[in-house]
Amino acid sequence: MNRIISLSTALSAAVIMAAGSLSLSAQDYDKSGFCPITKGMILEYVNYDADGNRTGSFMMSVRSVSGTLADGTVVFDQHFFDEDGKPLFDDNNLPMEVTVGGEDGTVSRMSDVGKVMKVQDIMSKGDASSIPSGLSTGMVIPDGTIKVRIGRISATIGTKNRQVLGQKDITVPAGTFDCWLVREEQVTRQPVGSRTEMIETWYAAGIGCVRQAVYDRKGRLDHTQELVSVRFE
């Protein structure tokens, strides 16, 4: 089974929005997995707390891609903003390199520990890197593991109890997408302890996360996220 490069997370073209649906000016972007892996795609997300209040946003762009879906590397540029749309950092970029395949499996590399700690709940959660391309309702997905390296600090993101709950069109500000709903439990293990969350994500082929809800270990809603724009450079 091929693994798909991504973190829960294109081509040179323009996005055309009409009548609540998404139409791309070119249709050859990579839809082989449930994550963005075509150079030039820019995705923008907005996060909300459990009461529906906007808490922040981030943009993720695919800077470069090399290798294959089974053994390759993708580099994302990530830009983060507060609830008022102001940049969280002066340089406001947190590059992330993700490699798939090899002895270490899936590895996500970032360089700034302080930034990562501040934005870990703004980025999409879950593990799109191990979601197979052929999904069906009720399907159980094997557990996934991502090794995270931030400077000299290492952490592990594990996903388990993963199941496909259904398929339908989902409409968000970015448009309408044919999506699969995946429920998974995420356990993040860091040197200072571990954290368990339950995640429900609507995934679209070639796009990745379209809408997501994150719950704490007691089943209480923590926050939601939705895709507000897709464009190409």
Detailed description of the structure:
The protein is mainly β. The chain is 3% helix and 55% strand. It has one helix and 14 strands; from the N terminus they run βββββββαβββββββ. The strands form two sheets. Strands 3-4-5-6-7-9-10-11-12-13-14 form an eleven-stranded mixed barrel. It has a two-stranded antiparallel ribbon with strand order 1-2. The radius of gyration is 16 Å and the shape is globular. The two termini are 31 Å apart. The N terminus is likely disordered.
First-residue to last-residue Cα separation? 31 Å
Counting helices, strands and paired strands, the structural category is mainly beta
Largest sheet: 11 strands, mixed, barrel
Average of pLDDT: 86
Features:
233 residues; mainly beta; 11-stranded mixed β-barrel; two-stranded antiparallel sheet; disordered N terminus
Short account of what is shown:
The protein is mainly β. It is built from 1 helix and 14 strands.
What is this structure's SSE topology?
Elements: E1 15-18, E2 21-24, E3 41-49, E4 54-67, E5 72-81, E6 96-100, E7 106-110, H1 113-119, E8 140-141, E9 144-150, E10 153-172, E11 175-190, E12 193-204, E13 208-216, E14 221-232
Parallel strand pairs: 7-9
Antiparallel strand pairs: 1-2, 3-4, 3-14, 4-5, 5-6, 6-7, 8-10, 9-10, 10-11, 11-12, 12-13, 13-14
